[in-house]
Predict the 3D structure of the following.
Amino acid sequence: MPLRLLPHLTAGKLVPKIERLFELSARKILSLEKTWLPARGTPVFTARGRYTSRGWTEWTQGFQYGSALLQFDATGEERFLELGRRHTLERMAPHVSHVGVHDHGFNNISTYGNLWRLMRAGRLRFNDRELDGYELALKVSGAVQAARWTTLADGTGFIHSFNGPHSLFVDTVRSLRVLGLGHQLGHVLMGEQDLRISLLARLVEHGLNTARYNLYYGERRDAYDVPGRTAHEAIFNTRSGLFRCPNSQQGYSPFSTWTRGLAWAICGFAELLEFLETVPAAAFHRPPTRPPGRSVGTPARHPLSATATRKTFLRAASVTAEFYLSHCCADGIPLWDTGAPDRHRLGDYASQPSDPFNAWEPVDSSAAAIAAQGLLRLGNYLGAQGHRSEANRYRLAAFTVADTLFDEPYLSTHPKHQGLILHSVYHRPNGWDYVAPKQKVPNGESSMWGDYHARELALLILREARAEPYLTFFRP
């Protein structure tokens, strides 16, 4: 594989870089807090080192306030806890009931979910009414996300993207965790005629359909069927409920791989595998139900198998992880898309360390931050299953990527730059990314999701180094 593993790396050896990262992170969070006006919307990505907004959907506000909560979790500095808590309580409620997006797991797990976890762990002063509020927000958010449902011809379905009921985004697999936590808290989605719909069932069905339609396994599905490749979007005929074609909104083409979408798949499936280990097998077999006396029209049962689901999710996480490791640069950073049109001008780029300042195609550090967390979680999951060789390889790959990200030229050290991790890309096809004078491609800028996931990755590794409880969304 192109990634050159650094065999000496451990969680403990990364601690000096992580401590430096959180020192810089504190300044970045406070700078944004001082200068950002909420009337401008949500900060999304930087231009000339200053965070700017971009009206598309409001999917990054949770990363803004959630970053302060991760900062507190890592450092114990109370001012960041208060900052994240206050802004969550004051400004995040509209995101709980937002019916127009597929991003609930991004916005609300990062804020209400982190606060719930911290309070349950005793890191935040216990207040039963406040905890009830966090749990209610998470329950409602999971149900609203689950209600964005498109039913397919086989009776299963998926949570459709903001593009409409025809659209299945690969991104959403990482957002499914809000359904998982809602289910864990005992919530259901109530439908017509009091139909009780399991959030777990919708999580599983969406995950299975993402694995089926957005991922490739070398099974001759089309002429570009390479194992581990992902399509950003799967398009369906909403009248027949049948799959029509792959598509891409933010990648180069439907038949190349947008690497941030690939990273969402690695991280999303690996994290769901961890969560499903806590779910009793019997919970998978509960069909939608109505109260007694209202059985007319109750949908047919579509039995879900715990064993088959875990097998599919593991296959999805593994095949995408292998594709990432085979197509990133030698230091673990990928180009923004594996089919980028000027990629050939870079020569054998994958055998060399990444060059964010090259003249032809941008890299995407945010994809690396997301993928590295997925690789680490996948390695930990496989280790718990007794697959030590594979586990060690994925864990070492994650540490190698983190070693690159948590240092220059990716770590942002300039005091006036508000971003934490440089060389992130937002929407290359739309030309939304800032390109500096005399440059041909975007570089030197940051994104809310890239910065958040770098902090989350750093916290995950730091907790391991300190022998602290393992970081998950579903337990303190």
About this structure: The chain is about 45% helix and 5% strand.
